TrEMBL record:
MF annotations from Gene Ontology: glutathione transferase activity
Signal peptide: none
InterPro entries for the chain: Glutathione-S-Trfase_C-like, Glutathione-S-Trfase_C_sf, GST_C_Tau, Omega/Tau-like, Thioredoxin-like_sf
Annotated source species: Brassica napus
EC number: 2.5.1.18
Catalytically driven reaction(s): RX + glutathione = an S-substituted glutathione + a halide anion + H(+)
Role of this protein: Is involved in the conjugation of reduced glutathione to a wide number of exogenous and endogenous hydrophobic electrophiles.
Location relative to the cell: Cytoplasm, Cytosol
Keyword Transcription regulation: no
Keyword vocabulary terms for this entry: Cytoplasm, Detoxification, Transferase
Name the UniProt record assigns to this protein: Glutathione S-transferase
C-alpha cells in the first residue's frame, strides 16, 4: 500500500473484533479513517504484513505463528461458541451445561496462557501480539454473559493468569482508547436486546 493512501477501517465500536483491528493499527502507528460497520480477524494479519512499523503482531517463528493461529481459532470457535450457547440456552439445564463448557474452555485457555506467556504478562511474552488481540475480544462478551447470568466465568481460582492478563490488556495504550468498559458493554447489550 502506498504511504499516501488513506487506510479505512470498517468496524463497530462495540464489536470485540473491531478492537482487534484498531489496537493492531495503533501498534503499527498507522493513521486510519474509522467507518462504523462489521469486520474480521483477518484484518489483523493483513495489518501486520502490510506495515513494518511498530512491533510484529504475529510471532516470527513458524511454530509460534502456527500456535498463535491455532489458539485464535480455538477462541473464535470454542469459546465464542460456548458464550453463544450460554446466551442462547432455552432453559436452566441448557444454560448450566453451556456454562460448564465455557468454564472448561476458559480453563484450557488459561493453561495455554500460562505456557505461552512464560510469566511475562501477555500471550506472546512482554508485548501485546496476535493472540492477545484475538483473546481480548472475549472480554466484552464475557462481561455481558456474567452480568446477565450472575455467574463469574473468569475466577481467581480457575483463571488467575487470564484475570491478570485482562487487566494488562485493557490498560495497554494500544487497546484502552478503543475498548469499552465492562459497564459500557453491558449497557450496550441491554439496549440491543431491550433488557432492563
Amino acid at each position: 500500500m502506498a504511504q499516501n493512501d488513506t487506510v479505512k477501517l470498517i468496524g463497530s465500536w462495540a464489536s470485540p473484533f473491531s478492537i482487534r483491528a484498531r489496537a493492531a493499527l495503533h501498534l503499527k502507528s498507522v493513521k486510519y479513517e474509522y467507518l462504523d460497520e462489521p469486520d474480521s480477524l483477518n484484518i489483523v494479519q493483513y495489518i501486520d504484513e502490510a506495515w513494518s512499523s511498530g512491533p510484529s503482531i504475529l510471532p516470527s517463528h513458524p511454530v509460534e505463528r502456527a500456535n498463535a493461529r491455532f489458539w485464535a481459532i480455538f477462541i473464535d470457535e470454542k469459546i465464542f461458541g460456548s458464550l453463544e450457547a450460554v446466551g442462547g440456552a432455552k432453559d436452566d439445564e441448557g444454560r448450566m451445561a453451556a456454562a460448564g463448557k465455557l468454564m472448561e474452555n476458559l480453563a484450557i485457555l488459561e493453561e495455554a496462557f500460562q505456557k505461552s506467556s512464560k510469566g511475562l504478562g501477555f500471550f506472546g511474552g512482554e508485548n501485546i501480539g496476535f493472540l492477545d488481540l484475538a483473546c481480548g475480544t472475549l472480554l466484552g462478551p464475557v462481561s455481558v454473559i456474567e452480568a446477565f447470568s450472575g455467574v463469574k466465568f473468569l475466577r481467581q481460582e480457575t483463571t488467575p493468569g487470564l484475570i491478570q492478563w485482562a487487566q494488562k490488556f485493557r490498560a495497554h495504550e494500544a487497546v484502552k482508547p478503543y475498548m469499552p468498559t465492562p459497564e459500557e458493554f453491558v449497557a450496550f447489550a441491554k439496549k440491543k436486546f431491550n433488557v432492563e
